[in-house]
Design a protein that fits this description.
The structure is a homodimer of 286-residue chains.
Chain A: H1 3-13, E1 22-24, E2 27-35, H2 36-39, H3 46-63, E3 67-77, H4 82-98, E4 102-110, E5 115-123, E6 138-142, H5 147-156, H6 160-167, H7 173-179, E7 185-188, H8 193-204, E8 207-210, H9 226-232, E9 239-243, H10 248-254, E10 259-266, E11 270-272, E12 275-276
Parallel strand pairs in A: 3-4, 8-11
Antiparallel strand pairs in A: 1-2, 2-5, 3-5, 6-9, 6-10, 7-9, 8-10, 11-12
Protein name (chains A, B): Thiamine-monophosphate kinase
Pfam families (chains A, B): AIRS, AIRS_C
Binding site for substrate (chains A, B): 39, 235, 282
């Protein structure tokens, strides 16, 4: 079965599944696995891998509106080269420090393929889930979309240092905490804006009308099909949230990152410029 | 560098590293990665894999003396077969239920090798670390050692159902919580009693004199070299702890599992029946 059907099966078996992170009392917890063939293009440094892997888990915590407290990781590799391992750990430490969390260690695993598992924790008494959106609200995103697509282009062009920089995103932890009091539903854009909208639509039983011209596209993303790549490429780790239109100004004022309304919450259907927007997710290198 | 040196490097970089689980406020958190070639012999069902992987993380929580609250996992496999995935999730749910924790979901990853990552969380205001042992105390273990070695023998003998049963151990969560008020240092025996003793000795700056005849050996472990296999095979997930001799009776009375004093805490050196006990860890199939 495909991954979506498989996630549905897990959701049938596990009551608590189905959001960016699981909630246990006032703690949110998430776990992710990334590996070389699909997540770390040739040229990705281990420092970037550590930053990005732990960052992806911190982004899930942010998407719940929780304050990230800490993270742990497993470094799985065929051999433990001191420079590589130190790079990974320093990347993990630095991304945590960047968002006020603590990297508290983890484990090692001898593994044929370079494979990383990461967990992040956060605290909140009022997590923001995916199911609270209402027709009549607006939908907005933090930052700009397409940064990881631009990174892939840079890897392809042999601009390895620049590509690594683009890959080391800032998890929107401060933004998530700040948006908690305004957002009715929230998730991150790790599978792309298009899929995020479909997931929010399904969880909240609503629809979306998004205006293409309003979608903030990462400046470094060049070439043809920028809007399509920015909306479907994914791996961007921005926050996508719904909120009442009259809360946008206050939300924006409290944020230290760009926050852009891209459309309206409707009764049903996910549309971009009036056309049905396919539920097309994260597709590498397309 | 070998795994031990690599762990030392991580410990130099991450202040909080070096125990069975990391502590973040009143929460303990651990992450583990297991995979087919080294952790799941042919014949291991996905139900057993889910139970065992999540159980290994719950065991780390138990080793801190914390009450396990929940767990999450990533199921990484080349394809998502419904029966396999459901088996894994049911194993994860059941082992959590067994110890009063909640399995709250996780993620999927398309991965060439069947690979699982698991995180467990627990709560305690007074975690038991590895560094509190003092010369003059005694060292004791829960349950009996060698169960996983017996499981491997059963897999080798083609007794698959029995092997799976032996592989589905009970994480010592209740015992860990109960021992918290008596134990000066504690860890689990996942790398074998010998290595556990060396790790406790190093962390606490003490030594151990263990009496071979006192070591409880799992009844189903048969054949030559039972004591050596029970002490070095590992993967048993029993608790190894130190405590004052006069606290043993109270500790035992409060436990619902066997609890056996196997030796004394000394000033230095790790000895079995008077001979130096090599720091030999988990070695499969030996």
């Amino acid at each position: 079965m495909d991954e979506r059907a498989a996630l549905g099966l897990v959701g049938d078996l596990v009551d608590a599944a189905g959001d960016d992170a699981a909630v246990l009392g006032g703690t949110v917890v998430t776990i992710d696995m990334l590996h070389e063939t699909t997540d770390f293009p040739a040229g990705t440094t281990r420092y970037t891998a550590g930053w990005r892997a732990v960052g992806a888990s911190l982004s899930d915590v942010a998407a719940m509106g929780a304050a990230a407290t800490g993270a742990v990781g497993v470094y799985g590799a065929p051999s433990f080269e001191p420079d590589d391992l130190e790079g990974f750990v320093r990347g993990a430490l630095d991304v945590c420090e960047h968002v006020g969390a603590e990297y508290v260690g983890g484990d090692l695993d001898g593994h044929d393929e370079f494979t990383v598992a990461t967990t992040a924790l956060g605290e909140t008494d009022a997590p923001v889930s995916r199911d609270g959106a209402s027709a009549g609200e607006v939908v907005a995103v933090t930052g700009a979309l397409g940064r990881s697509a631009a990174a892939l282009d840079a890897f392809d062009a042999g601009e390895t240092e620049r590509a690594n920089e683009l890959f080391r995103f800032t998890p929107r932890v401060r933004a998530g905490v700040s948006l908690r009091e305004h957002a009715s539903a929230m998730m991150d854009s790790s599978d792309g804006l298009a899929r995020s909208l479909h997931q929010l639509a399904e969880a909240s039983d609503v629809g979306f009308d998004v205006e293409g011209a309003a979608v903030p596209i990462y400046d470094a993303l060049r070439g043809k099909g920028r809007l399509a790549r920015a909306t479907t490429f994914g791996e961007d780790f921005e926050l996508v949230c719904t909120l009442p239109a009259d809360a946008v100004a206050a939300a924006k004022a409290a944020l230290d990152v760009p926050f852009t309304v891209v459309g309206d919450v409707t009764e049903s259907g996910v549309r971009l410029d009036g056309e049905a927007l396919a539920d097309r997710g994260y597709t590498h290198g397309e």
